[in-house]
Structure formats: structure tokens, C-alpha cells
Design goal:
Length: 271
């Protein structure tokens, strides 16, 4: 995407976030990768997303240092840059506090997923919750194990981060996470969402993978930051327990079988 088109998209979706009611005060931030690959355009700190104009955007280097622009970058920029470092194909990262999804994280509840077939094709079989941490480096370290596995995360005590090849795709992923959270919340008054059958999830994940939509390490267990590979059974068991906690009636044995199938899937090319 050209620099003028990227800047236009960042301003348009910044305002869209405000209109959607996903941000208050100075919440939320958006960034995009410039064609050169190692420079980024982002929204300024301390701005309502309703007020960001083309001249307010700034350009930063791979370390977050400001290269151009009249304002300062936002403090969560380090989380965006961690995504860009780990995912060379990612062209944009967006973050907001959409109220329904953010409520799940604030309540310490995982987002019930998957319960809608189309959402599995769009987001994969997992929308994980990144544990609550202090801002800054702890937040980057907490996010790191998820970046190569998914394209959207809920961050406990914060909101939703989503990324994709362009600003529109990243925004639509965030929008879908919030929409699922709204539906799950509405369904909770009716007894809660029903999980999809495991064989359906397996087929949908395969469709997503065949379409080239899967994240590089999708379906693989979380790897602690700095660790080359491998997984701890404890990490898998804990992730499974947390996921099932949000899905009334979930069958742990079926989920375990699905996880084993996903883990044995061949690792796709980086996207
Ligand atoms: Zn935030």
C-alpha cells in the first residue's frame, strides 16, 4: 500500500473506531507498515480517535523512534512493533477497547469461541486472552507467544489487538471479535453459546489453511518468548481449561482430540 493510501486508511479507521464506540478518551491506536518495510506510520498519543487528521500521523523507525510528525507516539507502540517483527506479512495493527470483548477480559473470562462457523474461517479456532500485565515490556512479553499463532487477541485488562495485511483487514478482525463477544453476551442470558462440533471445526480450520489464511504457527501451542520451539503440556492443559471455562457443555475429550490434530498439522509458510 502506498504511503498516501496508508495514511488515509489510518485516519478513516481511527474515526470509524470512535464512531463504533470502541474507544473513549485517548484509547486505541493504529499503525501501518510503509512499503520500505522497516518504517511505520501511526496515530499520535493523547488524541481522541475522532480527531486524528492526516497531519497528526507520525512516522517511526523499527525501534519506535520518531522520524517525522508533530506529536509523540503512543506507549503501546512496542506491542505493534513486536507484531511487525514476528510477522513480515503484517501491514497493519489496530487496537481498541470495544466494550463487550473488553468486558470478557476484564472479568477474567475467555471469549467463548468457536461457536460460529464463519468466524473460524476468518479468525481460526482460537481467539486467546493474553494475561493481565503491567504496561510496557511485560505487556510485550505477554503478547509475544501469541503473535505467530493468531491474528487477533483479547488482552486482559486492556482490549483487543488485531493485525493483518492492511488496515481494513485488521479493523474487520477487531470488529468480528467484538461482534462475537456481543453475541456470546446475549446468548449468556439464554444459557450460553453452544460450541461447534469438533469435526466441523477441523474442516473449517482446513478450509482456512487451504485458502492461505492461517497464521504461521496457527494451532500450535504457545511458546514462551525466547524459546526456540516445543511446548509444555502444562501450557496446553491450562489453555484448554481456560477455553472450556467459557463454553458451557464443552467436551474436554473432543477438544483434546482436536488439539492433537491441530498440533500434528504441517507448519505452513510464513505469511
Ligand atoms: Zn489499550
Amino acid at each position: 500500500m502506498s504511503e498516501p493510501a496508508l495514511r488515509r486508511a489510518l485516519v478513516d479507521y481511527s474515526r470509524a473506531m470512535h464512531v463504533a464506540g470502541w474507544v473513549a478518551n485517548h484509547d486505541g491506536n493504529l499503525s501501518g507498515r510503509l512499503p520500505a518495510g522497516d518504517r511505520f506510520v501511526c496515530t499520535p498519543t493523547a488524541f481522541s480517535k475522532a480527531d486524528v487528521g492526516l497531519d497528526d500521523l507520525l512516522t517511526v523507525g523499527p525501534d519506535g523512534a520518531r522520524l517525522a510528525g508533530p506529536h509523540k507516539p503512543f506507549s503501546e507502540l512496542a506491542m505493534h512493533l513486536a507484531v511487525y517483527r514476528a510477522r513480515p506479512g503484517v501491514g497493519a495493527v489496530v487496537h481498541a477497547h470495544p466494550p463487550f470483548a473488553t468486558a470478557f477480559g476484564a472479568a477474567g473470562r475467555p471469549l467463548p469461541h468457536p461457536f460460529l462457523p464463519e468466524a473460524v474461517v476468518s479468525l481460526g479456532a482460537e481467539v486467546p486472552t493474553v494475561p493481565l500485565t503491567a504496561p510496557g515490556k511485560p505487556a510485550v512479553d505477554a503478547l509475544a507467544p501469541f503473535i505467530e499463532r493468531v491474528d487477533a487477541v483479547l488482552v486482559a485488562g486492556n482490549g483487543v489487538f488485531a493485525w493483518g495485511p492492511d488496515v481494513e483487514t485488521a479493523y474487520l478482525r477487531l470488529e468480528l471479535v467484538e461482534h462475537m463477544a456481543r453475541i456470546a453476551h446475549a446468548a449468556s442470558a439464554l444459557g450460553g453459546v453452544q460450541p461447534l462440533p469438533a469435526d466441523m471445526v477441523t474442516a473449517l480450520v482446513k478450509r482456512r489453511r487451504d485458502a492461505g489464511l492461517a497464521a504461521p504457527r496457527e494451532g500450535q501451542p504457545a511458546v514462551a518468548a525466547g524459546s526456540a520451539s516445543g511446548s509444555s503440556p502444562d501450557v496446553v492443559a491450562e489453555a484448554t481449561r481456560r477455553a472450556l471455562a467459557g463454553i458451557p457443555g464443552a467436551d474436554p475429550a473432543r477438544v483434546a482430540r482436536l488439539a492433537a490434530e491441530a498440533l500434528s498439522a504441517r507448519r505452513p509458510a510464513r505469511t
